[in-house]
Each structure stands twice: as structure tokens, then as C-alpha cells.
Design a protein that fits this description.
It is rod-shaped and about 175 Å long. 38% of the residues lie in helices and 29% in strands. By secondary structure, it is of the alpha+beta class. The protein has 20 helices and 25 strands. The mean pLDDT is 86. It folds into four domains: 2-114, Beta-Lactamase (2-Layer Sandwich); 133-244, Beta-Lactamase (2-Layer Sandwich), CATH 3.30.450; 264-375, Beta-Lactamase (2-Layer Sandwich), CATH 3.30.450.20; 387-552, Alpha-Beta Plaits, CATH 3.30.70. Helix 17 (427-434) packs antiparallel against helix 18. Strands 11, 12, 13, 14, 15, 16 and 17 form a seven-stranded antiparallel β-sheet that branches. The chain has a six-stranded mixed β-sheet with strand order 19-20-18-23-24-25, sandwiched between helices.
Length: 554
């Protein structure tokens, strides 16, 4: 027994019944007990329940002589009731005693077994994680040019978890979509070289049913030969079919949006929160003369050069104007866009802020359209409605409106203006002898002559066949008479030639002051007409001023 007690490893003497005769200190310490506590116990008392009956059955076989020795890894119960892994070796103890004894040697392998269990648990956890992430594992061996595939890898391709798969490289290549195979072959070595900049291979692989699954394959070398060449590469495959379908839908949506924006005739500019260009459609490029690539990052005001059509003054950028208050801005009239080639285009535009999820302004969108043609037509229509089609002077209706405004101004400022009526003398003979075409040409010449004798802001109108009227705003009686006389001299000096014959005409004029008096439009026109009639009565070719309701010479 003393020999047993001095052994560094655990030893027990056991009877055939399993009763413990003696346990050395190393054995008792292994199980967290005292040697005295061990004696008298049965071997079955020390076997942990998780070991089932494995050790007991083997010991019974040893007792019956069915086996000569016992070797195995078993769980015994520690004094704290926790299992402890031990390596057990047993054989018959040859001694002089008539009682059959068996010697058991115990060595703790608890640390190793717990490490194995932890490794198994870790491997199981990673396997579950990979399966949950729909990732299959592959292991490529360069020495045999073969590949190991996990069960998840097989399921991804529509195969059974244990279904055989040809692991040869050529077989793998045959399953890759022909359009993707060149890229796979060109980049596969980057995986083997563990290129940190390489994001993986994306390709389509044929499933068992003939359909294709999109694969994202990532891997790296784990073994190398003495020269540094890879021997094994391990990696994962991820099913990204859904992601690719979403990408395709987004790409199609983006393309549709691009086609729509390219087809829209209106210019469109998208800007960030600082008012800098981040997108322009084709119409905006055409109208501004700047390409989207050149405009990106520039302030919208540098791309959209706006000025007031009437004054030529530079206008504030609508995008900046809408970003400040965070409200839409409309520019309807007078905005003129100057392109890079200097071409002016009248535009109408709307700028609206883009509000983000946090109710913050994250940018703006500007829509603008070229309205040069429509505004030109509007001006032409307005001009036609207010001008005489033959002479291009103001017509009677527009003249009466201008006279009404002059009457109001005279009342407000108490500064008089002059109203002059002009009637041509000897016009009818020209019209009758030379024809209406000659008469029209003569009227045009007379109209230009009257216009040239007046200031640019004076209103000159044709109010009848050969009758004209003039409003000299802010003009005194004396200056009005001088202008009237100037016009009469200029008309008298005209030599109108038609069909080889020269025709001459003269004019008579009547003047009245537009004052703060109670006279109406018709009243002032009647006064001027009466004065003109007085000029004709006094011999024509002169101007008469209406005073106190009576015609009188200056």
C-alpha cells in the first residue's frame, strides 16, 4: 500500500464487487476527497450520472475475464458533485490474496476535455451563425485541386445537405454563368493572395433546378508552402440574390427617372442645403449652356445667371431665396436667363425646399422653363391691341387711356400737360388720285415725321383716317405750341413721290392744356378738336390754342 500511496497519479484497489479497498492520496485528491472517505465506497458511487453505465459495464467485463484490461475516458463525480473527466486504465491485480482485486489508474484529462467541449461548442455556434446568415463554407485545396462544401453551401444551390458534389475546379467553373466566368477567373487569385482591397467575387451559379443564384464569395489563404504560395483557401458564400434583385429594381427605377428627366422640356436643378448644384437634367444644361459635370458643386446662382428683363439688374438666385425661409418661391415675370453664349432667354421658374425626415431643409429643387416665345407673342398681342396697324402709333383706345392717366397726374401734381390734335390738309386729293396704297404710304411717312418731332416718352397716336393726337406730359403751353409748330413745318416740308409724281400736304393743329380742371377725356379731346377746327378756319397750316372755351392764336 505504501507503494500506492507514493505514486503521483491516482490509483485504487477494487474488489470484483466494485468495493473500494484502498485509494491513494493522489486519487482521493483528484476527486476532492480524503483517502479514508474513499475506502468502503463502491466504484459505482464515483461514476457521474452523465457517464451512464459505460465504466461499470467495462469493469464487469474485466471481472468476468472477457477483457484483460480496461482503458477509456470517463466522467467521475467530484466531491462538489460536478463531473470530472479522467483517463481510466484497469487490470487484474496479481497478488497472494485469494480475493480477486483489480487496480485502477486515474489521470485527470478534465482540462483537455473541457477545451474540446468549448471548441465543439464554438464550432457549433459558428455553424449555426453561418447557417442563419445563409452562408456556406468552402475549403479549396490547391494540392488536389478539390473543394470541400458545407451543408449550407449545398442547400444554397438547391442540393441535399449530404448530396455529392464534384469538387473539381472545372466542375465549379461549369456551374458559373458564362457572362460571369471571365471575371471570376481574372480575380480568383486575389482571394488566394488575401488581398485586403478585394471585396469578394460576385457571380451567378447554376442551381440544381437550372435557375441561377447570385453568390458573394469571400475567402483567404490559410496554408502556404515554403515559397509562400497558398496551399489552402477557406471562405464563405453568401446568397445575395435578393440584394441583386433590389439593385436591379433600383437601377431600372433610376433609368426610368433618368429617361423621364431627360424627356422633360423644363430645366431641373437639384441643390444641397448650401445651394450647390448636385444634379441638372439635359434641358437645364441646354438652357444654361453648362454641363452637369461642370456645374456639380457650384452655387446655383453661378449656373443660373438671372437678370431683370426690363432693367438688366442681376436678380437673386431663387434657390437661395427659398432656402432662407424654407418656403417655395415663384418667379413669374421679368426674369431673364443669360446663357454662357450671352443669349438671353426669358424664363419662369419655381424653387422649392426639400424637407428631410427631421423636418430640416436638406436641399432644394428648381424648375424653370423658357417662355421667351410665349412672352414675345404676349407683347406682340398687347402691342397690336394698343397700336394702329398701319402706322404703328398708339391707337385711339390706348390713347384715351393714356389721356386719362395724364388727367389724374395733372390733378395729383398740379402740373399741366399738353394735348395736340393734328389734321392733315390736302390729304384727300392724294388718296383719290394716287390711290389708297399711296395714301397709306403717305400716312406712314407723316406718322414717322410726327414721332421724330416728339420726345420718346410722349404719346403719339393715330385717332382717325388722317387725324393724329399727341400728349406732351409735363409740358407748358408755350413749349407745346413750339412742338406743334415744329410738327406742322416738318409735315409741310415733306415731298411725297408716288408713281413719278410728287405730292405735298400740310397740317392744322389744335392745342389744349390738360389741367386739374374737371374736364373729362372726351372734354379735353373736344377742346383740342375745336382748336384744330379753328386752325383750319383761319387758313390751315397753323396751330391754335384752346383758351377759355374759345379758339385763339398764340
Amino acid at each position: 500500500m505504501r507503494i500506492f500511496d507514493h505514486q503521483p497519479f491516482g490509483m485504487m484497489l477494487i474488489e470484483a464487487s466494485g468495493a473500494i479497498v484502498h485509494a491513494n492520496p493522489a486519487c482521493a485528491g483528484l476527486l476532492g476527497r480524503q483517502s479514508s472517505d474513499m475506502e468502503g465506497r463502491n466504484l459505482s458511487d464515483l461514476v457521474h450520472p452523465t457517464d451512464d453505465t459505460a465504466l461499470g459495464l467495462q469493469f464487469e467485463s474485466l471481472v468476468r475475464g472477457e477483457i484483460s484490461s480496461l482503458h477509456g475516458e470517463h466522467r467521475l463525480s467530484h466531491a462538489d458533485a460536478n463531473p470530472i473527466w479522467v483517463l481510466v486504465a484497469a487490470q487484474r491485480f496479481e497478488a497472494t490474496s485469494k480475493v480477486a482485486l483489480f487496480i485502477l489508474q486515474l489521470a485527470s484529462i478534465d482540462v483537455q476535455k473541457k477545451a474540446e467541449e468549448a471548441l465543439i461548442y464554438t464550432e457549433r455556434r459558428w455553424r449555426f451563425a453561418l447557417q442563419s446568415a445563409r452562408q456556406g463554407v468552402w475549403d479549396y485545396d490547391y494540392r488536389t485541386a478539390s473543394i470541400f462544401y458545407s451543408a449550407a453551401w449545398r442547400l444554397m444551390r438547391g442540393l441535399g445537405p449530404d448530396e455529392w458534389v464534384d469538387g473539381a475546379t472545372a466542375a465549379w467553373h461549369s456551374r458559373i454563368h458564362p457572362d460571369d466566368l471571365p471575371a471570376v477567373k481574372a480575380n480568383i487569385d486575389r482571394q488566394a493572395q488575401s488581398d485586403e482591397t478585394f471585396q469578394g467575387l460576385e457571380y451567378r451559379e447554376r442551381r440544381k433546378d437550372g435557375s441561377y443564384v447570385w453568390i458573394l464569395s469571400r475567402g483567404r489563404a490559410v496554408e502556404w508552402d515554403e515559397a509562400g504560395a497558398p496551399l489552402r483557401t477557406i471562405g464563405t458564400d453568401t446568397d445575395i440574390t435578393h440584394i441583386k434583385m433590389v439593385e436591379q429594381e433600383l437601377a431600372e427605377e433610376k433609368e426610368r427617372l433618368r429617361i423621364i428627366l431627360a424627356s422633360v422640356a423644363d430645366g431641373m436643378i437639384s441643390a444641397d442645403a448650401e445651394g450647390r448644384v448636385d444634379f441638372m437634367n439635359a434641358a437645364a444644361e441646354h438652357l444654361t449652356g453648362i454641363s452637369a459635370a461642370e456645374a456639380r458643386g457650384l452655387p446655383v446662382g453661378d449656373v443660373l445667371n438671372l437678370q431683370d428683363h426690363a432693367s438688366g439688374m442681376k436678380m437673386e438666385c431663387p434657390v437661395q431665396a427659398c432656402l432662407k425661409p424654407g418656403a417655395a418661391i415663384r418667379v413669374e415675370d421679368d426674369a431673364e436667363l443669360i446663357g454662357t453664349d450671352g443669349t438671353p432667354r426669358e424664363i419662369r421658374c419655381t424653387a422649392a425646399p426639400v424637407i428631410g425626415s427631421a423636418d430640416q431643409v436638406i436641399g432644394a429643387v428648381l424648375i424653370f422653363q423658357d417662355v421667351t416665345h410665349s412672352r414675345t407673342l404676349q407683347r406682340q398681342l398687347a402691342h397690336t391691341a394698343s397700336h394702329d396697324p398701319l402706322t404703328d402709333l398708339t391707337n385711339r383706345a390706348a390713347f384715351e387711356k393714356a389721356l386719362a392717366r395724364s388727367i389724374i397726374a395733372a390733378r395729383e401734381t398740379e402740373k399741366p400737360s399738353c394735348l395736340i390734335f393734328i389734321d392733315l390738309d390736302h390729304f384727300k386729293p392724294v388718296n383719290d388720285t394716287a390711290g389708297h396704297a399711296a395714301g397709306d404710304a403717305l400716312l406712314k411717312m407723316v406718322a414717322k415725321t410726327i414721332r421724330d418731332c416728339c420726345r420718346t416718352h410722349d404719346t403719339v397716336a393715330r385717332i382717325g383716317g388722317d387725324e393724329f393726337a399727341i400728349i406732351l406730359n409735363g409740358c407748358s403751353r408755350e413749349n407745346g405750341l413750339r412742338v406743334g409748330e415744329k410738327i406742322i413745318r416738318a409735315i409741310t416740308a415733306l415731298a411725297f413721290e408716288w408713281s413719278g409724281q410728287v405730292h405735298r400736304v400740310s397740317a392744322s393743329a389744335g392745342l389744349t392744356l390738360i389741367t386739374s380742371g374737371p374736364a373729362s377725356v372726351l372734354g379735353f379731346m373736344g377742346e383740342a378738336d375745336a382748336a384744330c377746327y379753328g386752325a383750319k378756319a383761319e387758313g390751315r397750316g397753323r396751330i391754335v390754342c384752346y383758351e377759355d372755351g374759345l379758339p385763339a392764336q398764340p
